[in-house]
Amino acid sequence: MHESASVFWNLSRLDKFKRLGGGSVSLIVAGAACLAGFAIVALLSDDGLRAQDHGGGYLAAWSGDEDREDSDFLAVINVDSSSLDYGQVVSTSSVGERSTNPHHTEYSFTAGHPLFASGFAGNRMFRFDLSNPLRPRFVGAVETPSALAFSHSLERLPNGNVLVTMQARNEHLDGPGGMAEFRDDGTVVQWASADADVGESLVRPYSLAPVPGRDRLVTASSVMGVPPWHPKRQELRDESLGFHLQLWRLSDLSLLSTVALTASRESEAHLLPYEPRLLDDGETVLVTTSRCGLWRVRGLEIESFTADLVYDFEGRGCAVPLSIGRFWIQSIASTHQVVVLDVGDSGHPVEVSRVQFNERQLPHWLAFDERESRVVMVNAPAPLAERRIWMLDFDAATGQLTLDERFRDVGSEQPGVNFDRIEWPHGSTGSAIPHGSVFLN
Q: For 126-138, what is each residue's pLDDT tens digit?
């Protein structure tokens, strides 16, 4: 479908007129026709399209075609809560490749830069121009260094480049992985291996927390693996569960230290460290594990680099968290919850709020919208999970998190935007699995 088709697809949604109460039907139709004429002329130009973006909000969701018969794509959702189209998919951009297993995007969007996104199982990485959300544009794949493979997590640095964790050193997903820094055009600035004397299968950079003020970088090491349908699944050896953190010098990606997380015999809170985040003070790093332990890094020098367990969420499947002010917001798949902790005293976190979902919701990916102080929640890509995106309102003063009931598909009795649908702006490609999602403010 031509890129402008997404605009006309959105304009053709006649259900909007059902919301107009009273008055003459003929006047409404006539008025609508006049307005539509002006709208179409305006929308045919880039300037007109951009004008529609002023004051609005959009969410970009990196999505995989569920039956893998059609291309994977980026979907853009209108998240301007004052809009009649609130919660509606308004445009898409396909990458022209199938079965890439869309996974992480950058954790937040930086205006003036393309959005980087990982097609993990396809060992692919892509870039999108989102300067105009109503016409998202796929601008090409990214070539990774020959000694690294399988990009996972991506973080925009203060210098404008993107830093990426790489899970492996080759297409067979053999360890160790490493780190790579890219320019906006996809070219490599620098890269380094995460090789350490702890066993190559254990050194798998999963996610990252740059600490620019200290010229440091903290990475968590856990193997991602590929989905059951992947053609090389049977060739890949079973991996030990990771339990290491690594400290790097951010400026030149020199590996400084590798340490193991340790817990009591009864606890698995140290296994599969996933997501480190930098707190508001600019130097304290907390790390969550898939086994739902929350760890605090003691220091950012070689002699002090280790971590202590400061909280146990008592679940499994803790995934992408948020650090907002003095609050830590955590997704927990096994308990179907998103939990908020007050980490003002990072050594003694205290729960202040939680949102409970039903059993078909497996909270996984979270992203924050500063403009309207809200959090998007995307389910884990598990077989039993709904293909649905939820919106939560967040009180940054108290830490209270509540479900946004208004964010839903037209005519739906359930909140959230459902990706189990037939039609998309780019065609009738059927159900999709959303993953990395970011607000475009």
A: 999 999 999 999 9
